[in-house]
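To illustrate this point, what follows is a protein record of this kind.

___
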Amino acid sequence: MTSAVQPPRASFDTWGPWALLAAGVVAAAISARPVGMDRPGTIVCTVLVPVAVVLQLYWGRVKRRRPGPSRTGVSLYLLRWAVAFMLTWANPFFAFYAVSGYYTAGRELPRRLVLPGLFLTAVTMAGSEVGGWPPHGLVMWLGFFLVLGVNMGMVSVFTRFAEQEQARLSVQADTIAELERTNTALQQALDENAALHAQLLVQAREAGVADERRRLAAEIHDTIAQGLTGIIAQLQVVANAPDLTTARTHLERASTLARHSLGEARRSVHNLAPVELMAGGLPEALKKTVAEWGERTGVRAEFTVTGTTEQLHDEVSATLLRIAQEALSNAARHARATRVGVTLSFMGDEVTLDVRDDGTGFDPAAVPPRTRAGGFGLDGMRARAERIAGALTVESEPGHGTAVSARVPLVGDDR
């Protein structure tokens, strides 16, 4: 806003006084005889007009070096007023030159001297408007003071309007500057947000990769690792089989486990539901899993369902099935149990899976951390439950068996 207002002012400051001085000289020359301009007045004008020219030239150089109010500017303003006053005294039409004081007082004088400077210019203008200096007679003097009062009133009003306009422009310029700063800050914030968004995308991608690796690791542990463990157990039986019929039976079981593990591995890579869940819901899959595990291990295994059975979401069903498989695998490897019970309970807005055995038990607080050679075990089951906003608890005591309980929200199948 400042740049839009400043060029016209600078232009008038440059040529305005020259144009007004030229207008005063032309008007005075034309009106010299009608106004009764005498020889001394002519001499005064002849001397003061060159003085005014030199004054304007010098003032232009000063303003280029030091724009704005200054002591030199005050002195030059007063000197120009004096020259204009004497020229107007000699010929009233030199008021054309004197009027430049109205336009330059606000920019050349300090704020406290603006009104006195305008008053001096108004005195010169009032004298010219009543016929020239000095006023003749009481009526002319009364007219002079009346015109002076009118001039000062108008000057005060216009000065006030100019100050208000200047204040408005200043506020507008400050507002624009503040908006520019705000826009700059906003752009910086947008740039930072864009960088943060890109960083979050990278982190999300890395987190997704890590989560997928954990999922595949858990799936491999629950399918291939457990299948291979079962196959090894069946082959060990074959190696010690007393007859060919027993060996063939266990070889068929090993072959079935191998095919099952291969299918589960393929399904895990594609993130598909476990094959046991394809034929029916979770209760059927658990019933079949428990029965096959009991047949394979020779341990008495029972499965029970309590509550009103509901069709669960695939993710919930897969999670509980994997937890049951891991718990049964742990029981087979570590518990030396003679009896295992698996219970699936539907309880309002929750579903609970309990796996209990009468094996050797252990101290849950003394479980060593998982090593590279170890399985996912309790940590893997707990991570699975927490992944779907559930929880897993383990109760065990040496010599008194183990109870694993997984409690998860009951989320129905939305298909």
The chain has eleven helices and five strands. The first helix runs from residue 2 to 31.
